[in-house]
């Protein structure tokens, strides 16, 4: 049956002739080029924090919840169910983690977050798969329900006068604090990399700073996240289960005629999607040691954007989450000086975009991109600082530019968002 499914999938997903596929060697080449660009910016501008261990460690922490939300969206949408309820599922996960974490510790908080997010996924699955509710409407409803439920329950459980939670430091906006999540450091390697980083050698010290972030005070939840990305790739693209699940998002009627239980696979995908988003929410609570109202801060929506940027592939989602995490950490840690240095980086991205548009014979877009790139270069040399508003918006600006660079390669699942009823193939 697997061979039949592959054939059916190929029939509904024709190849795009004349367009080079973004393979993993190309992805690695892009990452290498990005490292060289950032190292060059560090050397030219003298902004050492651009490639420091602290910068990339903070970027890794910022990327994890976004990446988990994006990976959750990938699971759901590969099965054909649009999931804009990721934000609400993250809220449920962060609240559940805060509720359980102060009583039973961070590992129990992570499990609670997974269950809380899966509960949100179950609501979305029942609405969209069983009752055929529009996926966008259902996702919005999940977000609204999660916001109201977490605020009400926080007031009821954390802020109630005389309760154990209130006595332990909770209130109607946050849970009592929980214990630290264990981290690991590779002592000898971390010290050596830190020493190499301190020499500020071009590219060598930059690589040492990046690698140092991977061996210095790394949360075990971060390691779990990496394992989930690798496992998701092999499960979805290297197993019969993944082939059947993806067929539900590409050609559900064909999959049904070949014996696939489409409803069952859609339910499984949306539940896993919610669980991953809930773990992302739990990571936020565990990282600051408590749940707090408004803690997700739109990261579910950003995760959805990284999924689209990543072309519904785990590697692409990881790259998108890393980009946003880097920019978010940069503006939180260093603010104006580092963003000022990255004006040149944004100019370089726009210059590449201009060349691509010129190659595609889109001269107006190419001229516009080149003009803005020139203005950014002039801005860099004319001023020493940038407005606070630009500092705060820098992650979103960089993400939009990268989306513009890769938008022509996006190919969502063919049957995504379409209503499905059992027996349509007969």
How would you characterize this protein structure?
The chain has 426 residues and is an all-alpha fold. The chain folds into 2 domains: 22-51 and 335-411, no CATH class; 52-334, ABC transporter involved in vitamin B12 uptake, BtuC, CATH 1.10.3470. Helices cover 73% and strands 1% of the residues. It contains 18 helices and 2 strands. Strands 1-2 form a two-stranded antiparallel ribbon. Helix 4 runs parallel beside helix 6, helix 4 (86-104) packs across helix 13 (262-288) and helix 14 (299-309) crosses helix 15. Residues 11-19 have low confidence and may be disordered. The chain crosses the membrane at residues 26-44, 56-74, 81-102, 108-133, 140-160, 210-237, 267-291, 339-358, 365-382, 394-412. This is ABC transporter permease.
Strand order of the largest sheet: 1-2
What is the count of distinct domains? 2
Number of strands: 2
Helix content: over 70%
Principal-axes geometry comes out as globular
Strand/helix succession: HHHHHHHEHHEHHHHHHHHH
Structural class: mainly alpha
Rg over C-alpha atoms, rounded to the nearest angstrom: 23 Å
Q: Which CATH first-tier class of the largest domain would you pick?
A: Mainly Alpha
* Low-pLDDT residue intervals, each spanning 5 or more residues: 11-19
Transmembrane segments: 26-44, 56-74, 81-102, 108-133, 140-160, 210-237, 267-291, 339-358, 365-382, 394-412
Subcellular location: Cell membrane
Protein name: ABC transporter permease
Membrane topology: Multi-pass membrane protein
